[in-house]
Design a protein that fits this description.
Number of helices: 8
Order of helices and strands: HEEHEHEEEHHEHEHEHEEE
Strand content: 15-25%
Shape: globular
Distance between the termini: 44 Å
């Protein structure tokens, strides 16, 4: 069963020389279809949810909407295939955690989740191992985040004529918003606002778009993940939102810290000036996809209160930089302006 991976070489970040030119990586990843700003199905330069429009009939790709009876709701859908064949429990927990982390950044409370596991080969002895592990991961994560499992389905493939297809799990999560006035969006709000990261950075590029697309290495471990730390983020975010100490929040997701910042800046064309951690490799710091991290925008007049509040929690946090009028700067080096960060197509 899980032993099928034992003879494979285990990837280590030390196998890749730390790059000296981050520019090349950035503009190479910009054409990755999973990260590119020009994406006709999912254009993350869209302005996203407008709080004053929540009561209208318009739908919104940001995942926040209003029902006919006036209830503000949130919904998000995520898929995952990494390591379902070797560690389905952890892989499923990571998927649920990503969805929940995105939802709490809106100020929504996750309520229910449905899951669909498919492309499982019924003739493969590992098929039941995957199904059993995914079930345990789903139930454990749902309990950890206080979410009900509303539905779960599995599709077994009876033949392999369609060619190799990785087992995949897709989940949809529904959440509720108790106070519309406390809904957050991911985009930066004002030049000069402080940017903080809640969570810890690691020398970790496992299963990242950077490793797979730029270095063309498809076999690596799951990213750093601690489900208990993920659950702690929920309580901390609730406190920050209740006390109105932050103006924006977004999870560190696909593409790592850099592309999460890019997604936060593009809607309003604000840039960012950040300083990397000297103790972490720059490529891992900027493009690694380790879990349990949030980017928050903090107004300058609330920075001290934010630090005081975070100092009472158990979560690590650090100042990343500040929002600029449009220029992107990393370690005092300019990467141009955010409105020009589009690949030539």
């Amino acid at each position: 069963m899980a032993e099928i991976t034992e003879n494979k070489e285990v990837f280590s970040i030390d196998q890749i020389e730390e790059p000296k030119d981050i520019h090349e990586i950035v503009f190479n990843l910009m054409v990755n279809p999973n990260l590119a700003p020009v994406n006709y199905f999912n254009d993350f330069s869209d302005e996203g949810v407008e709080l004053e429009s929540l009561a209208s009939d318009d739908t919104d790709d940001a995942g926040i909407f209003t029902t006919d009876n006036g209830q503000v709701m949130s919904m998000t859908t995520h898929a995952f295939h990494h390591h379902l064949e070797s560690d389905p429990k952890t892989a499923t927990e990571i998927l649920i955690s990503r969805a929940a982390r995105r939802m709490i950044c809106f100020g929504a409370k996750p309520q229910a989740v449905s899951a669909f596991l498919y492309h499982i080969n019924i003739a493969d002895p590992n098929g039941q191992f995957i199904a059993s592990g995914a079930k345990k991961g789903l139930e454990n994560a749902a309990a950890k985040f206080g979410v009900k499992v509303s539905d779960r389905k599995i599709r077994f493939d009876h033949f392999s004529a369609h060619g190799p297809v990785l087992p995949t799990i897709i989940i949809s999560m529904m959440g509720s918003v108790s106070d519309k006035d406390k809904v957050l969006t991911h985009q930066f709000k004002s030049k000069g606002n402080n940017i903080f990261v809640i969570g810890q950075s690691y020398d970790d590029i496992n299963s990242s778009e950077y490793l797979e697309f730029y270095h063309e290495i498809g076999e690596s471990a799951l990213p750093v993940f601690d489900i208990d730390r993920e659950a702690e983020l929920h309580g901390v975010m609730c406190g920050l939102i209740d006390q109105k100490l932050i103006s924006s929040a977004s999870p560190v997701g696909k593409g790592g810290l850099f592309f999460s910042l890019l997604r936060a800046g593009m809607p309003t064309k604000f840039g960012f000036d950040i300083t990397t951690d000297a103790e972490i490799r720059r490529d891992a710091f900027l493009f690694g996809e380790s879990m349990g991290r949030l980017i928050v925008g903090v107004p300058r007049d609330k920075a001290d209160d934010f630090v005081d509040y975070m100092s009472t929690t158990k979560l690590p946090f650090f100042t990343l930089g500040h929002v600029t009028k449009g220029e992107i700067r990393i370690d005092d080096e300019s990467f141009g302006f955010i409105d020009k960060m589009n690949p030539i197509v």
